[in-house]
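Everyone, describe these C-alpha cells:
***
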Amino acid sequence: MPSKHSLELRRQVGQLLIMGFDGTAMSQRLRVMLSKFQPGGIILFKRNLEDAAQTHALLREAQKASSAPIFLCVDMEGGTVDRLRDVVAPMPSVAEVAAAGSKKLFRKHGRLIGEEIRTLGFNTDFAPVLDLQLEPSQNVLTTRTVSPKPKQTIVYAREFLRGLRDSDVLGCGKHFPGLGEASLDTHAELPSISKPWKRLWKEDLLPYRKLGHDLPFVMVAHAEVTGDNVPASLSKKWMRGILRKKIGYRGLIITDDLDMGGVLASATIDDAAVETLRCGADMFLICQKEESVRQAFEAVLKRAEQDGKFAELIAEKSKRVHDAKKRSKALKKHVPPSKQKTMERLTRRILEFSEEVRAHSMPPDEVPG
C-alpha cells in the first residue's frame, strides 16, 4: 500500500495537470484515469461534444470522479476557435467583434461566451487571445486577434474579461509573450521570433503588463523569442524572470498543450512536463494523447520522488493552484442541466449578437483605444 507521503505527492502532481481525453461519455477507462491522476482540470474539444445535455453530463461526471473542485476548461474564442458552434450556435470571431468598435459589444462577447459555456457546465475559458495582429502571423492566427495596436487589444480584452466575470467564468490571456511575430503554427512547429526587447516590452508585452490583475491564467507559448534556444514554455527567463518578476503577474501560469509540435521539437513529453514546472509554470496542459498524460504525470512524480527540492516546488505550486480554486467563485457555482427553452433562448441571443456585430462593423483603424 502506498505511504501517506506518496499519496499526497501524487495528489500534488495531479493538481498541476489539465488533461484532454477521447470520448463523449464517462467510460470506465476514463473514470479510472481521472481517479488515478486526480487532475487539476480537464479540457474538452469538439471530439468530446455532441449536444448540451451530453456535455453537461460529461463535465458533471468528471467532477464527481475528482476529490477536489476542478477547472472545467474549453478554448472558446468565437470564429475559427469555436468548439460549441454545432452544440449551440456559431459565435462571431474576435476580429469581427473588434471591428464593431464598441466596448459594450466587447463585453457582450465575453458575457455571451461565458453564459454559453457556463450553461453547458464549464467554468474556465482559455481566452482572450492577446497576440497582436501583425503581418508575420496573419496566415496562422487569421481572425483570432484584435489589432496590430496593443492599446486596442487591451480595450477589447479588458471588456471581454469583464463579460466572462459577469458569467462567473475564469479567463486566460494567451499566448505569452506573444505570437504576433510568429510565422509558423506552434501546433506543428517551433517558431523563432526576433524582435528588440524595447519593442517587445512596449508592444507584445503591454497587454500582459496592463491586464495582469484581470487574468486568472496566463498561457505561455511554444515559441523561441529573441535568440533563446528554448521555447518560452521551457524558459526560466520568460516565466520566472519576465512574467513573474518584471511584470509582477500573480495568477496561475499554464503552458500551451505539451502535445504540440512546437515544444516537442525541443523536448520529449516527459522532459517538457518536468522542465516547464521547474522553469516557472504552475500547471501544464496535455490535450491530445492519453498516453502523453500518463507519461508526463509519471515523469513529474518520479522526479519529485528523487529530488527533494523539486518535490518542494511541486508542493508550492499545488498550494498555489489550491488557493486559486478556493478563492474562485467560478468553481463554487454549479449550474443544473439546461432546459430546451433555455438553450433555444441562448441560441437566439447569439444569432442576434452576430447581427448586431455586423451592423456596427467599422474599419480596424477606427476601433477605440
